[in-house]
Amino acid sequence: MAGTAVRGRLTWQTATVGTVTDETSTVRTLLLDVPGWGGHQAGQHLDIRLTADDGYRAERSYSIASAPGEPVAITVERLDDGEVSPYLTQDVQPGDEIEVRGPIGGYFVWDGDSSDSVPLLLAAGGSGVVPLRAMLRYRARIGSSVPMRLLYSVRSLPDVIYRSELSAEPDAVQIIYTLTRQQPPGWTGYARRVDAAMMAEVAWPVAQAPLAYVCGPTNFVEAVAADLVALGYPPLRVKTERFGATGTP
Amino acid sequence: MAALEEAVLDGNAIGGMLIELFGTEMTTAVGTCGVCGTTGQVAELLVYRPGLGTVVRCRVCDNVLMVFVEVRGITCVDIRGLAHLA
Fold it and tell me: Which candidate from A9, A107, A219 shows the least CB-CB separation from B12?
């Protein structure tokens, strides 16, 4: 059996970087050509492994930014003290090869099943918007009529990832920003960290049996999830994904 | 303390490693804490990755449920903190 991959087993494979798109001054989206990619669900992630010349390896997980059926894409935020993200956001070029394994995850996914057409509340802290963007794109791709509301906590408008795409969403998709550090002149939206009062205003009423997906830095996710549960959301209807320390969106 | 708290991830982050070790998607598997009996999906558990390995704790009582350490390409798995995992 040596050299034979066990069927269905996840293995590292070589992906080729395709188009690279700057989203903000520190965030990039990379298209990845992964031979034999078996498809993914909205909300899943993949792991990337970089190996230095001396053999040192670093692995990181990145949410898949594209909808099921679209080419694989990841969106990466540069962390100045990071081991992997500076390479992916500054040095990598189309045609370069990187090791990936995926798709990964069965919990933080939206399958687009129209039989469960309850409203979705998506809450993003900073680059936590990436897997939620995959859900929004999938909604459009399958022509779903599920109402979606995205609460996006971000430092300032220039830090908004996918800004033009989000502004083009149809009326059934509401995008609500809270700009936590800097607001443009005349800004009338939220301008503070997410809190219980904001969640009470933004969240779908519990009577509509909404489903919530919350992704961002750990402290953001904990705060939003606690507020939703306090509003009466059953904990099992609040799906969470934390990506640790990346500052405060 | 803030820095320590921010290093907390959840079970989503170890989905790839768990597939390699168990051969199947494990973030939706349900684990039962061996101390307090809380049940929950692996995706919801607390995950710490201090560099030497991975420590998975119960969200309710902080009991260590699973420890993974890789030594020379071999991963040592300790799941004694779990009463049940399915």
Answer: A107
Q: So what's the ipTM on this one?
A: 0.89
Q: Which helix (H) or strand (E) holds B15?
A: helix B15-22
Report pTM: 0.93
**Half-sphere exposure (Cβ direction) of A183: Cα atoms closer than 13 Å:** 14
* Residues of chain A neighbouring B7 (CB-CB closer than 8 A): 244-245
Mean pLDDT by 10 residues, chain A (249 residues): 52 95 97 95 96 90 97 95 91 96 96 82 97 98 95 98 96 97 98 98 97 96 97 96 63
Run of H or E including B40: strand B39-41
How far, in Å, CA of A129 to CA of A215, rounded? 7
Residues of chain B contacting A104 with CB distance shorter than 8 Å: 15-16, 19, 25, 27
Q: Tell whether A243 lies on the interface with B, counting CB pairs under 8 A.
A: yes
Question: Do the beta carbons of residue A212 and residue A111 sit within 8 Å?
Answer: no
Distance separating alpha carbons of residues A218 and A233, to the nearest angstrom: 19
SS3 state of residue A18: strand
